[in-house]
Specification:
339 residues; alpha/beta; Ubiquitin-like (UB roll); Elongation Factor Tu (Ef-tu), domain 3; Rossmann fold; 3 domains; five-stranded mixed sheet; 34% strand; Flavoprot_Pyr_Nucl_cyt_Rdtase; 2 iron, 2 sulfur cluster binding; 2Fe2S_fd_BS; oxidoreductase; FAD-bd_FR_type
Length: 339
């Protein structure tokens, strides 16, 4: 018997990861782990448990056409009451986590270290009490000791380990930044999640990844997984910051590039006084060729103006990528100031 990891992505952004045996139906495995995927039967008749399998191999037992058509099955839809995984899978559940009687996982953690990567960014290292499974690119809420508050950050580390890392923007006066400036090794925090629809899908075509500042974090997590499983598809990563000092984690990126073999790293600096071969913004350098005539998956993580500018730039180029996944990050302190 083989056991596989199945990530259940709920429509409210929460992800829960379960273990499912190769002779076990997904609904049964979920129920065993206290998650109730909606269903009215267990026989492939009603269609209530219909979901979209975004990744993985599986077998489907009996189901009626009234529950799921052949076209839906060909498009990747499954009846989870009849689905038995044959590999690790990712399934999109058309219901909220609350409706399925579950919630984000909460894990205690110990501060293992804080690295001052630059004047504008920290690296936070945590030791989790137990491993957290997540999809590379997803985020968690990290509590800020002594404040009763939390802040949301994408993992910059690989899933499934007790050692977790985060790349955090230094905001003077910010709740987390103020804490990190004086954080002590051994202090306790709580990590809640994982959450978010920004995560790496199966790589079947060229990849164009765009990172603005600490928006590099989810891409580091993605690259860790790619380095582990491998790919023959080209990956182009644009990494845009303001100044050369803000280009953090370059040694790690170069090591991952050497391991992966198909990764091309392009750095851009916005400050005009910097001596750098590429200056300005990402949109000053992105071409139609980067989009491979539309046969490319695009992932973008950066501040809202960057996301909006890239979308407008694609329209100007007249090229629509095969898929476009983006995450806008806006610090909580900035939101409060704008309110």
């Amino acid at each position: 018997m083989t056991t596989y990891t199945v990530a259940l992505n709920f429509e409210d952004g929460v992800t829960r990861v379960i273990q499912c045996d190769d002779d076990e139906k997904v609904t049964e495995a979920a129920f065993r782990q206290k998650i109730n995927i909606p269903m009215d039967c267990r026989d492939g008749v009603c269609g209530t448990c219909k979901c979209l399998a975004e990744k993985g191999e599986y077998e489907l037992e009996f189901y009626m056409d009234e529950a799921m058509t052949e076209d839906e099955a060909a498009a990747g839809y499954v009846l989870t009451c009849q689905m038995m995984p044959q590999s690790d899978c990712v399934i999109r559940i058309p219901a909220s986590s609350a409706a399925c009687k579950t919630a984000p996982e909460e894990i205690g953690a110990t501060v293992a270290g804080v690295d001052r990567l630059s004047d504008t960014s920290f690296g936070l290292r945590l030791g989790l009490d137990r491993p957290m499974q997540f999809l590379p690119g997803q985020y968690v809420n990290v509590s800020v000791p002594g404040t009763g508050k939390h802040r949301s950050y994408s993992f910059s580390s690989a899933p499934g380990a007790t050692a977790a890392s985060f790349l955090i923007r230094n905001l003077p006066g910010g709740v987390m930044s103020s804490y990190l400036a004086n954080a002590q090794t051994g202090e306790r925090v709580t990590v809640t999640g994982p959450m978010g629809a920004f995560y790496l899908r199966p790589i079947t075509r060229p990849q164009l990844w765009l990172a603005g500042g600490t928006g590099l974090a989810p891409f580091l997590s993605m690259l860790e997984q790619v380095a582990e499983v491998g790919t023959d598809q080209p990956i182009t990563l644009y990494y845009a910051v303001t100044r050369a000092a803000d280009l953090v984690e370059l040694a790690r990126l170069e090591a991952l590039a050497a391991q992966i073999g198909t990764l091309r790293l392009i750095t851009i600096l916005a400050a005009p006084e910097e001596g750098h071969p590429r200056k300005g913004f990402v949109t000053d350098h992105l071409t139609a060729e980067d989009l491979c005539a539309g046969d490319a998956d695009v992932y973008l993580c950066g501040p809202p103006p960057m996301v909006d500018a890239v979308r407008a730039h694609f329209a100007k180029l007249g090229v629509t990528p095969a898929s476009f996944h983006f995450e806008k990050f806006n610090p909580t302190e900035d939101k409060a100031a704008a309110a």
